[in-house]
């Protein structure tokens, strides 16, 4: 990957986050905030998404050599899925059932599964588990500050949607960005 491609990746993720922020703020579906605040929220959330993406790439590069990395990903996925319900319940100080908080564990998992399925079709079946792990675990970790906005269910949902959108963009575009360019006729491959 060269600097131009890295810049395009960053620009694309930030644009995706800002666009989602503007669309969600303008629609007023989840939170009633101004369009400029939606733009700013999308920009900051996309920066968080980029940091999580680089952290995941580093972790995956280091752990790929370990024999139990795939099993560990499944275990961590299950722990995070359970913890997001318990974490939200405890952060809200709720005394009632955990059932209402289950939705915040399920809908990101569904979107992560769809994105991981698309990635598996693009890159092969072996890409499904790492893609699901990144899309779910890292989105939830990045989302923790947003989940602490107690009493602001709309903003929590909006931040989660922007994170999932940015992470989906990063996951699906990475293969195209790092693919080596084909040499132009008459030029040697070394010159590219």
Automatic annotation (TrEMBL):
InterPro entries xref list: KinB-signalling_activ
Record keywords, A-Z: Membrane, Transmembrane, Transmembrane helix
Membrane-spanning intervals of the chain: 35-56, 68-89, 101-120, 127-147, 153-174
Keyword Manganese attributed: no
This protein's record includes keyword Membrane: yes
Superkingdom as given in the UniProt entry: Bacteria
Protein's name in the database: KinB-signaling pathway activation protein
Record organism: Fodinisporobacter ferrooxydans
């Amino acid at each position: 990957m060269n600097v131009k491609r890295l810049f395009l990746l960053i620009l694309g993720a930030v644009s995706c986050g800002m666009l989602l922020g503007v669309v969600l703020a303008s629609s007023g579906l989840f939170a009633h905030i101004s369009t400029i605040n939606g733009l700013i929220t999308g920009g900051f959330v996309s920066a968080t998404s980029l940091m999580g993406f680089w952290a995941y790439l580093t972790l995956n590069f280091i752990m790929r050599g370990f024999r139990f990395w795939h099993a560990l990903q499944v275990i961590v996925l299950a722990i995070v899925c359970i913890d997001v319900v318990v974490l939200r319940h405890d952060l809200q100080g709720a005394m009632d059932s955990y059932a209402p908080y289950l939705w915040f564990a399920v809908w990101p998992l569904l979107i992560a599964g769809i994105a991981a399925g698309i990635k598996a079709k693009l890159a092969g079946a072996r890409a499904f588990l790492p893609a699901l792990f990144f899309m779910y675990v890292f989105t939830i970790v990045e989302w923790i500050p947003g989940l602490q906005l107690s009493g602001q269910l709309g903003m929590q949902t909006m931040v989660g949607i922007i994170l999932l959108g940015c992470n989906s963009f990063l996951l699906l575009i990475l293969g195209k960005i790092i693919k080596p360019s084909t040499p132009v006729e008459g030029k040697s491959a070394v010159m590219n």
